[in-house]
Amino acid sequence: MRSDTSYRAAVIGGGPAGLAAALLLGRLGVPTAAIFPATQPAGADRRTAALFAGSIQLLRNLGIWPQLAPLSERMLGIRLIDGQGGLLRAPETIFRAQEAGLEEFGFNVPNAALVAALTEAIVREPGVTVIPSSVAELITQDSGVIIRQQDGSQMLAALVVGADGRQSLSRHAAGITSRTWDYPQAAVVCAFGHGRPHRGISTEFHRPTGPLTTVPMPGRVSSLVWVESRDEAARLQALDGFAFREALETSLQGLLGSVEDIGPRATFPLSGLSADTLGQGRIALVGEAAHVMPPIGAQGLNLGLRDVAVLAGCVVEAQPGSEEAAVAAYARARAPDVASRIAAIDALNRSLLTELLPVHLLRGLGIYVLGAVPALRRFVVNEGLQPSLATPAAMLPDGLAEIARPSTPPMTIASGKT
Fold it and tell me: 148: buried, middle or exposed (CB in 10 Å: 19+, 13-18, 0-12)?
């Protein structure tokens, strides 16, 4: 079967970043195809995403926040606890949203609910055509990118948005090289109940094997990201419910009282990836196709949603036929934010793993100074939430109205043949 259908943009990938990209482009009047398999593992992702204010505003602008809000929990503060046990142990430090002039830092949102809400919105969006398929090959031509699907059909897109994850076919097709690395760690994730209220505070224990993080969920429930050596993570995953609860209570040091109901657990290894550029030719990369980092500081999906917001602005600003210029502008705009976040998170994670005493002293001193200097605390909080370089229009109230333009006509396919 063949298809001569053409689109200005085609988004490949059914994760949060890809779905958000397709929905945003469609809302902004860009004729868009969203390509992802018909059967996605609904409910299989037990993780949550701590989304900061800009990301939440994007979800509001897309119209899906009302159905996510009841399932999410406000983050009013971030607590750092130095669990290294070194000579210079920093005092407990809490960053509060009020210090940054905010009602909250953001919300902790279940990943599965986020994917479901975005998918439902895309199906209803007139500017997006959902194509339930997998992509077999991408072929770049002067007239656009030919997208060949697994069933043999094909289409042409002036621009491809690669949101197809760490093993990105889009990245390979664009000729974009990347750097990858592994950490000797894995994360155990789950939700758990507890006896004491979390009071909207997210907590990170900085420990020799990596961070143990709890993030508030509705009620007396928190989500857990427990980073250990890979062998220890496998051991924790294999424990029965009673033994795991005891181990978690010990590691939390009584912070949330008694640990109660524990949800299904999952384990995944920690690794990193950095694409050398976020776009080349007619192919732009967003989310984990472009960058992967350890689950520290809640940077991963927030970074991916900023990719989406910036890319949409570049595409809408460019005239049809100028997609390569839009991709180049996007890659330039995102480079500083992405590179700085990857470097900072990698350095922090490695500082926890090292046995070098000077590194522990410097890290402990840094946390102490953050706790003691209010102006520095405010600066670090604001930079952690959103880079000071610029806030993408799509992450501002009424931002879509500022950048939207009338729908562009469909492309005229040159031949659809190779």
Answer: middle
Each of the 418 residues of the chain gets a pLDDT tens digit; together they read 334 588 999 999 999 999 999 999 999 999 999 999 976 554 456 679 999 989 999 999 999 999 999 999 999 998 888 765 554 555 678 888 887 788 998 999 999 999 999 999 999 999 999 999 999 999 998 889 999 998 889 999 999 999 999 999 999 999 999 999 999 999 999 999 999 999 999 998 988 888 899 999 999 999 999 999 999 999 999 999 999 999 999 999 999 999 999 999 999 999 999 999 999 999 999 999 999 998 877 788 999 999 999 999 999 999 888 999 999 999 999 999 999 888 888 877 766 654 444 444 445 545 544 554 455 455 555 555 556 557 899 999 988 887 765 444 444 333 333 3
In the block, residue with structure tokens 């909207």: 200
Q: Long-range contacts of range 213-218, CB-CB < 8 Å, 24 or more positions apart?
A: 213/295, 213/296, 214/252, 214/255, 214/256, 215/48, 215/50, 215/75, 215/108, 215/298, 216/73, 216/74, 216/75, 216/108, 217/48, 217/73, 217/108, 217/191, 218/70, 218/71, 218/72, 218/73
Domains belonging to the chain, first-starting first, are 6-78+108-180+271-351+388-403 (3.50.50.60), 189-266 (3.30.9.10)
**Contacts for 147-151 with beta carbons within 8 Å, 24 or more apart?**
147/10, 147/12, 147/35, 149/35, 151/1
Structure tokens at 387: 């880079």
Query: Structure tokens of 101?
Result: 């002039």
